[in-house]
Amino acid sequence: MNSNQDIFKKIVSHSKEYGFIFQSSEIYDGLSAVYDYAQNGVELKNNIKKYWWASMVQMNDNIVGLDSAILMHPKTWKASGHVDAFNDPLIDNKDSKLRYRADVLIEDYIAKIESKIQKEINKAQKRFGDSFDEIQFRKTNQRVLDNQKKIDNTIEQMKKCFQEDDLLALKKLIDELGIADPVSGSRNWTDIKQFNLMFSTKVGASSDSSSEIYLRPETAQGIFVNFLNVQKSSRKKIPFGIAQIGKAFRNEIIARQFIFRMREFEQMEMQFFVKPGTQSEWYKKWKETRMNWHKSLGISEENYRFHDHDKLAHYADAACDIEYKFPFGFKELEGIHSRTNFDLTQHESHSGKKLKYFDPEDNKSYVPYVVETSIGLDRMFLAILSSSFFEEKLENDSIRTVLKIPPFLAPFKAAILPLVKKDGLSEFAKKLYDNLKIHYNISYDEKDAVGRRYRRQDAIGTPLCITVDHDSLNDNMITIRDRDTMKQKRVKIKDLKSEIDKLVNISNWLSKS
């Protein structure tokens, strides 16, 4: 088994065993591609939201928040283009009876060729050591050049198929590439058909009088229809942004890779309204700002990269993704788009209401342009889990599993552990716990040997373990153990809060973002 696949399976298993993520409705055999965040997962998820919100809204005086409704007037989705154009190109395998997204099949084919290139690079790197020049190797090695040409030709052909909306040519491309069903190995494919991804439901007192509405497939439209309401009530001048965290729903046929692609998911996004003509400048600024935010988490920079879109959405004049190197490869984590004035213009047209901004400096009205940053909260959760998961061999040859989650995001900031339950240590430890839980989310554990308790806290990512021993009763000092280094030190109880604060206070991390 591929080592990365093995790691990913371990992460999925760890998520359930240690109370991060459960399959939805598991007692009924589960609901495919829908998950529940368990007791530790919800804490981590909320901490990610808190950090994003603080860095996006609290730290920017020209960005405000919004929480718009999931249900919107159905004309909203006609105006946005989702009713007519929010489709996936799907293809069925006649032998396995499984359904796939045509573009994903081709992207997986490209990823396999990329892995061949990487193997050639890794072999050469071992051979030449420090003198190895990867850029020169990519330019001169014939096997790498041939494989890169395959990738470039495939991307160009796929891009042309989508630009011309030619599903027959897309099917032909899959046949010519010899792409097989990843489960059965069969190449017996149906024609490709478009499938709309929106969930619909009914609103109204009876089936006769009810009308069809949709669960929102994205949160952005709630911001656009409220643009003038927010601008006037907040008295913000352009440029300014509106941020929102909320649920969205897509009827993904090919939902896979755990919480990476789900039918019910959460987005953290911000729409930044700018003067027409300045969108390119703001697009570059937000690209840099958002990448810096990801780097502020302390995750290795080599795990991130920009990917510029070959095919732009109909509303965009520039677009890129920040991709993260998940165990299953580089995939989209956050999208940054220059959306022009498409959305506001469409809503003006379909609603008959003016959505123009009066610019007091230019003394004229115009429809603003928009630069969007949109990050999948669930994908961010998975990125943090993936980057934090380690299996370490210790001196006694035992293995400890540890989540090295950035301390300010960890579900619990510290754990209070009395060395034993007797001799007044539990009472002393519980008093300490009661004093600290006002300030932080603190765990208390007095069951099993202290070494086993350390392992439990390592496995859920608790940055500090605070042990109360017999000496603590006399000298008012405790032992702090660091999760990552496992080093211990004695600290006075009166200094304990400042010790925790140094490590987990969100303000220490906001200055880096």
Give a nutshell description of this structure.
With 513 residues, the protein is an alpha+beta fold.
Write structural notes for this entry.
This protein has 513 residues and is α+β, with helices and mostly antiparallel strands. It has three domains: 3-73 and 211-385, BirA Bifunctional Protein, domain 2 (2-Layer Sandwich), CATH 3.30.930; 87-196, Herpes Virus-1 (2-Layer Sandwich); 399-510, 3-Layer(aba) Sandwich (Rossmann fold). Helices cover 40% and strands 25% of the residues. It has 18 helices and 23 strands. The strands form seven sheets. A seven-stranded mixed sheet has the order 3-9-10-16-13-12-11, with helices on both faces. It is globular, with a radius of gyration of 26 Å.
Any idea what the radius of gyration is? 26 Å
Q: State the low-pLDDT regions, or none.
A: none
Number of helices: 18
Largest sheet: 7 strands, mixed
Highest CATH level, the class of the largest domain = Alpha Beta
Q: What oligomeric state is this?
A: single chain
Distance between the termini: 38 Å
The portion of residues forming beta strands comes to 15-25%
- Could you state the CATH homologous superfamily of the largest domain? Bira Bifunctional Protein, Domain 2
Give average pLDDT, whole number.
Answer: 91
Structural category is alpha+beta
Sum up the overall morphology in one term.
Answer: globular
CATH architecture of the largest domain: 2-Layer Sandwich
Number of strands: 23
What is CATH's topology name of the largest domain?
Answer: BirA Bifunctional Protein, domain 2
